[in-house]
Every structure is written in C-alpha cells, then in structure tokens.
Amino acid sequence: MGVEVFMAVSLVLLSGFGALFQLLRKVNGWFCEWKVGERRFLLPPGDMGWPLMGNMFHFLRAFKSGNPDSFLSSFVKRFGRTGIYRAFMFGSPTILVTIPETCKQVLMDDSNFVPGWPKATEELIGKKSFLLITPEEHRWLRKVTAAPVNGHEMLSNYLKFIEASVISSLESWAQLGEIEFLTELRRLTFRIIMHIFLSLEGETTMVALEKVYTALNKGIRAMAINFPGFAYYYALKARKTLVAVMQRTIDERKEVRRSRGHESSTLRKDMLDSLMDVQDENGRHLADDEIIDTLIMYLNAGHESSGHITMWATLLLQQNPLAFQKAKEEQEEILRRRPPNQKGLSLQETREMVYLSKVIDETLRVVNISFVVFRQAVNDVMINGYIVPKGWKTQVWLRNVHMDPKVYHEPGTFNPSRWDDYTPKAGSFIPFSAGSRLCPGNDLAKLEISVFLHYFLLDYQLERVNPDCAVNYLPHPRPKDNCLARIQKIRRSP
C-alpha cells in the first residue's frame, strides 16, 4: 500500500511540475510578446522558452551534444520550413532567419538592420569596433582600412612573411613528435597577424599574447556573467591585458614618429600606422580607443578563423584521398610552370590555385566557423509574411544555410568539386557574412590558408593520434584534443 501511495503522489507531483513548467513557458511567451501589441499576431512561429533562460538551454545542449543542427531542426519539425522563427536568445527576444532568402534580406538591408551582438561580444570586442559603429562610420573606416589588409600591393608584401613563417613552422613541427596541431596553427596565424598589424615579433611575446586572445575568444559567445568560474569573467580580464599592451604600443609608436619626424613617412607601414594616419573630411584622427577596438576586432577574427579553417582543410583533405591528390597535383603543376629564377610563391600563383580555392570554400561551408551573425531591427520589417518587430534581435543562421539539403546536395559530405562551374545564388554561401558587413579580412585569410596548404601538400602528411576524437562546437568547431597529431615530412616526387 505504501508503494502505491508513493507512486501516486510522485505521479501527481510530476504532473504538477509539468503543468507548472508549461505555464511558465506560456507566461514567458506572453511577457515577451505583449509589448508588440496587435503586431504579435504577425510574429513568425516559434517559442520563447523558459523565463530568463529562454531557449539557451536547448541551444547549449544541442551544440554540446555533438549534433548542433538539432537545435534549429526542432523548430523546423514543429513549425515547418518557414525560414523564420521567434525565440528568446542571449537575454533578448530574437528572430531566427535560416534560409538563403531570409538571410539575404537581413544581411543586405542596412536601412532596417544594424549589428545586434550579445552584450558579451560588445564588451569584449569593443564598442568602437566595426561590429558596433554606425553604418556611416563603418563605411568610412572599412574603406580606409581595406587597402592595408586586402590591397594587391600589401598582400604581395605580406606573402613573403607568411611563406617564411609557414616553412619554418612546418619544419619545426616535423621535429617535435606529437603536437596539438590546432594550437600550433593558431600560434602561427597569430604571429602572422601581429606582424602585419603591429610589427610585433618574438616567440615568447607571441605565445603569451595568443593565450590572452584565447581567453578573450572563449567569452565572446558566452553569457555575460561577470563572476569567477564563467568564461566572460576571464575574458574581461584578457581584454584589459590586451588594451594595456596595445595602448603601450601606440604610445611607443607615437614617440618614434615624433622623434623621426618626416623620416617616419618613409618607413614600412603596418595597420597601426595606417590607423594612426587616418583622418576624415574634417581632419579628425581616430582616438586611441577607436584604434584599439579596431585592432582587437581584426586580430581576433584574423587569427581565429584562419587557424581553424587551415586545420579543418588539412584534416578534410587527408580524409578524402582523391581530393588530396587533386590538390597536390595542382601545387606540383605550379612548381613545374615556375620560372627558374623565381624563388618562392608569387601572388599570381596563389590565384592560379583554382582547385585549392574550391577546397577552402568547401571547408568554410562544411565547418561553419561562424555559425551565426547577429543583427537588430531598427524598424518593423516584414519577411516572408511575418513581422520582425523594431528593437528585436535577429540571428542570421549561416550554418543552417550551408547544411540545408534543399540548398546543397548531401551537405554533410566534403566535396570540393561541387563548386565546379557553380555560382551560388545570393544568400546561400555566406561564410564571411554578406553585404556592407562582409568580413574585411577575407582575402588575407584565404592567402594564409592557401600558402600553408601549398607547402603541406607538397612536403608533409599528418597522422592524428585520436582520429575519432569528438568535436566541440562552441565557440568554434574543434576536436576536443585540439587535433593531437604528428607532422611527417615526405620525399617530394621528382
């Protein structure tokens, strides 16, 4: 009898808790939507999750389960493939856009959508960075920084340093035995980007600063909880360290420029020099905090994306022997066509790597280093017959577009040849975002990746210690062991 009573009471309690949770979900949905007034009837389908937490529990569970696509697939199963849903994410009512048509509309419409990044991202990258300044400021600053990053002359200058760094790193790794391949690649790309942007060198300094950037990056997609034990807390400390280092570098650069006077104009310029020289039509120069936030944004994006994509491109090529052989033959052909008096790669040769470019694009599509872009509506906007209310956050789900079987045949399959004679329609291939907010360093990133793969394909192979290692998907996809591996030098074919 006692067991039966216990079971009955337990059943009643469970039913009560279930009813309470459902009630809380409904109350949360009503609370989020009532401010929209009558327009709430035009909101897209979806649910607002739990009070305070919203849909974040389900989001984090999906990305930590090894099946990140299950988060959005649950919306599709419940509400259909509308391409637009409502949710509560990162502390705000949010509209999720998930198919090429809706993503294109949000990314290309600067008059109705502005950056709407979570608080953690805003605080860590900086409120004076590209991510948060007004469209007018963004267009101006992007224009004046484009040439030092992506201009033909500058890329040609960067190429020699990138090439020398790649060659020495691969030779060193081949002597070390087991290495964390991703960790070493991130150090390599960080060293390259610090040289290009700040002319900083020195292995000890680079390793120390790269660790600080790692802590910063872990907090960018985290909840803004400033308390010991949380990623955001340690990321804020990392930002403080980086700001101090950059301020010291700016002060030192100003002193050098003062002491050398006109002579300083004849010296090689890096990104810091370019930012210090910038002035608008009224003669205003950038303040130190504007320069620092711009550099933090560029440096973080530059070494994180390049390092991760290089690792995944290397792994995916090794896992697909036919693609590996085709890419390798292309690099060997480049060597055969090279004039005898030419030493090292030329920028023109990197642009002749047609198949390798497809390998990089396919890696960007499959891996999705940046799975989502954040915007905010500044006006009421209609998308696919639904309203995006003014003030609501909008998430552009790049990952969902790239992994959608209605957009790409067998999207989970790595197939560089899918890009043969194929031009994706607008909104269907957006690894660097799109529109006016397209990543300004994408050409430099592709150059770094191409140079590394060129030398790796010609002379090296990689043997993973844990080939079946699970993958973490936050903040970026990576093997849990950071790709523990051995780099082996091979004899080049005559």
From TrEMBL:
GO CC, any one term: endoplasmic reticulum
Q: Which InterPro entries match?
A: Cyt_P450, Cyt_P450_CS, Cyt_P450_E_grp-I, Cyt_P450_sf
Protein name (database record): Ent-kaurenoic acid oxidase
Q: Report the membrane topology from the UniProt record.
A: Single-pass membrane protein
Gene Ontology biological-process entries: gibberellin biosynthetic process; pollen germination; pollen tube development; pollen tube growth
Which family does the entry's similarity section mention? Belongs to the cytochrome P450 family.
| Gene3D superfamilies on file | Cytochrome P450
Q: Which UniProt keywords apply?
A: Heme, Iron, Membrane, Metal-binding, Monooxygenase, Oxidoreductase, Transmembrane, Transmembrane helix
Top-rank lineage group of the source organism: Eukaryota
